[in-house]
Write a structure and sequence with these properties.
Length: about 350
């Protein structure tokens, strides 16, 4: 009888603990252990060195390339930006002293993970890497992607103009990567940051000299800005680029698609204008709240149709619904560009 009683008590206590942990996770010993900070900086660095390579991580479409770093912070008690910065940059500096693909991949992985830190030291470090022409284009554009994730609206405008249109303008392939990166950070951005992204891309596109890059700008801007999609400037920029001389084979290959796109745009109901004045954009302060009309212009309706005649004839090919394409692009970029390239042939997903 005593044995049965003790067993019943034990079962009661076990079930009660389970229910308490499920209903109140803050009292869970297992969760408390996960939230306990790694007090030793050396231990944090060592743990990062094991995890940062990501050989056993699995990514799915729709996830961002920063998710593993976000999970790591939760598992290790949410170390501060400053501690993460110190540990990650130490790993980077050590890898920088070595040569070879493995060292370069580790450096790229570090600047990717730094995209979860928004302190000023991290932002300065990412800009330092992005501006270093001695580094490879992929490392530099990864640094820009991470910077864009944590930058405020005004910082976003400045870095996009710097690397897409002005003094530190990168090569065309790198510019393409930067443009797609803006799509990754757009969804979770403030209205002011969204405005900075749209206007910076519009101004950079107005000064673009590669025909094939119009498709990249246009694909991104049409997804995030109905105002751009129906603008007169969209048509005029495309017409100018079609007439311009080709700068590379990719420009020649893009011509048939661009000519078809222009025919479709000319059939559309174009009724808006966008700012393409670089000087005016540089003077604008995006740290100030956007006017209400600009906030409304940034909103993409849940079922925003393409208004061209071609879209009516072939809705499955040209119709876009809200921001749905963003998920597919983000998943593609995260999984293919910022994941498999870094991992190379190490492990499989």
């Amino acid at each position: 009888m005593k044995t049965i009683f003790r067993t019943a008590v034990l079962l009661f206590l076990t079930s009660t603990t389970f229910l308490l942990e499920a209903e109140h996770p803050e009292v869970s010993p297992s969760l408390a252990a996960e939230q306990a900070p790694l007090l030793d900086d050396d231990a944090l660095k060592a743990h990062l060195q094991k995890r940062i390579r990501g050989e056993n991580d699995v990514m799915y479409a729709g996830w961002t390339p920063w998710d593993p770093a976000i999970w790591f912070r939760k598992e290790t008690g949410n170390p501060s930006d400053e501690r993460m910065h110190a540990a990650l940059t130490a790993i980077y500096r050590e890898a920088e002293t070595r040569e070879g693909k493995e060292a370069h991949d580790l450096m790229t992985r570090v600047v990717l993970w730094l995209g979860v830190c928004s302190d000023n030291a991290t932002k300065a470090f990412l800009l330092e890497v992005a501006a270093d022409e001695a580094k490879g284009g992929f490392l530099r554009t990864t640094a820009i992607s991470s910077y864009l994730r944590v930058a405020d609206a005004e910082e976003t405008k400045k870095v996009l103009l710097r690397f897409l249109a002005e003094g530190d303008r990168m090569d065309s392939q790198s510019r393409s990567t930067i443009i797609w990166s803006t799509l990754m950070v757009y969804q979770d951005a403030t209205a002011e940051k969204k405005g900075a992204i749209v206007e910076s891309l519009c101004a950079a596109l107005a000064g673009e000299d590669h025909k094939w890059l119009f498709r990249v700008y246009d694909d991104v801007l049409c997804q995030i800005s109905p105002h751009y999609r129906h603008s007169l400037q969209r048509r005029d920029i495309l017409a100018r680029l079609i007439k311009a001389p080709a700068l590379c084979k990719a420009d020649d290959y893009a011509m048939p698609e661009l000519e078809e796109k222009l025919r479709e745009i000319e059939k559309a109901n174009l009724h808006t204008t966008i700012n393409t004045n670089l000087s005016a954009l540089k003077e604008r302060d995006f740290s100030q709240p956007l006017p209400e009309e600009e906030r409304i212009a940034l909103e993409v309706p849940p079922n925003a149709p393409d208004t061209t005649d071609a879209a009516q004839e072939k809705p499955s090919q040209t119709r876009r619904e809200g921001l749905c394409p963003i998920t597919a692009v983000v998943g593609l970029l995260a999984v293919i560009v910022l994941w498999f390239v870094l991992r190379g042939k190490r492990g499989s997903v």
